[in-house]
Design goal:
With about 120 residues, the chain is an alpha+beta fold. It is built from five helices and seven strands. Helices cover about 30% and strands about 25% of the residues. The protein has a seven-stranded antiparallel sheet.
Length: about 120
């Protein structure tokens, strides 16, 4: 089972701004979990990821120019070792993909959705 270190909950206003600013219909399980913990550290046997806060997700996706270089994904966080935690927009599947190149083929499938990702061992 994952060890999850939660941040304080997101305010309703932060959640609304995130959904509006994203311009993508992000899955409700992710929004619900982030409204309970606005960012978190997730530790599994194989992975450690920091999931960014809602405002960081918006700003860092813009800074990394994800819409231009990886339009099929939204970045949710990092392993602090060169890999991004990325959600595929069409499927909501989670991958670890490299920050340099943003190539799915260079990454690794992690989970079918965010809830499943949090349940990894």
């Amino acid at each position: 089972m994952s060890v999850i270190h939660k941040n304080p909950a997101a305010r309703n206003e932060e959640v609304r701004e995130f959904i509006t600013g994203l311009g993508y219909a992000i899955p409700l399980d992710f929004v619900k979990l982030m409204s309970e913990s606005n960012g978190m550290a997730v530790e599994t046997v194989d992975y450690d990821f920091t999931v960014w806060s809602l405002d960081e997700i918006l700003s860092l996706n813009k800074d990394y120019q994800v819409e231009e270089f990886a339009p099929d994904f939204i970045l949710l966080g990092t392993n602090c070792g060169g890999m991004a935690l990325a959600m595929e927009k069409m499927t909501a599947k989670l991958y670890a993909i490299p920050f340099i190149g943003f190539e799915k083929s260079d990454g690794k499938f992690l989970a079918n959705n965010f809830t499943e990702f949090l349940a990894l061992e």
